[in-house]
Prior knowledge:
Elements: E1 12-15, E2 18-29, E3 32-39, E4 44-50, E5 59-61, E6 67-69, H1 73-99, E7 117-119, E8 122-128, E9 132-134, H2 135-145, H3 148-171, E10 174-175, E11 184-188, E12 194-198, E13 205-206, H4 225-232, H5 242-257, H6 261-268, H7 273-276, H8 282-292, H9 303-324
Amino acid sequence: NDYRTPLAGNHLIKNGTTEYTVLRVLGAGGTGYVYLCKQSNGAYVAIKELYPKELWHVLERQANGELLFTGSLDSRKTLDWYRQTVKSAALLEQEHTKSSSGDNNSPYFMQCLQTPFEDHGTLYTVYNTFEGNSFGDYIKEKRKSLTNADFLSTILSIIIITCKKLSYLHQQDLLHMDISPWNIFVTNHGGLEDIPYLLDFGSAFKLGSDASLCRFSVTDGFTPAEIYRHATGIGKLPISAAVDTYSLVAVLFYALTGKTFDDALWEMNNDWSKLLEDYPDCEDLCEIFRTGLNSQHQRYQSADGLMDALCEYRAQIRGNNKNDD
């Protein structure tokens, strides 16, 4: 459960003389909310608010929007760690924006427009944005308007594009670490194509860093077991790209079944065919989930490996459709 309270619509976020009006929540991740805002000059931007889910009980939202800290010294240290992580992630995103200018592999991430600033007792980071929805809302919208076949095709396309972006991220030795339906933002560029963007790099992990110093976000239903082990200090395993591939497969599972993998595991006793029987080549789809949601060393070890499996499945069902015609 998420006990946090987002900023209300029409609330103001201020950075010096610049004001941003909150229009709506775009998404929510383990480290905070992302809002669609209108700048005082009329421009639309996305603003990330640091509001860690882990600290909901010591960060109380006041009527004026302030996050009042009521915690202990240990909680303060945790909050300070998050603040430093958000600042570091923003610098990485700014560096990526500069280094990838004109690169056809980008824009893979929302452009970070400035370093974080303080307001309401916490940090805010400003990004460019486009009109769209979180993938969680996108799923609901498409589920209502599309046939099962078209829905599957649409969702596969979004996940495959996200795989490409995740692969690019991993090539920079950076893991996202908090992928969920609400940390993927889908926008439409001039009606041509729905494009997903990865949001919320507040939990990003640089490969080679000391994982014992990190506090990884946990989003139930989308976080693999090794992260829970790190959180409890029991049976720690090396952190690898397999964390992100698990989460992305879990997002696909949620999109197609309406359930998190954790819920389905208990309900269906590892037999997901009944949940997926309305989709073509159901058993092959089940096999992707069995592999992708397996233990750390048995699942897809790279975004490219997952993408290959999804592309093969998509080509297979497209070929079957042509044969049926």
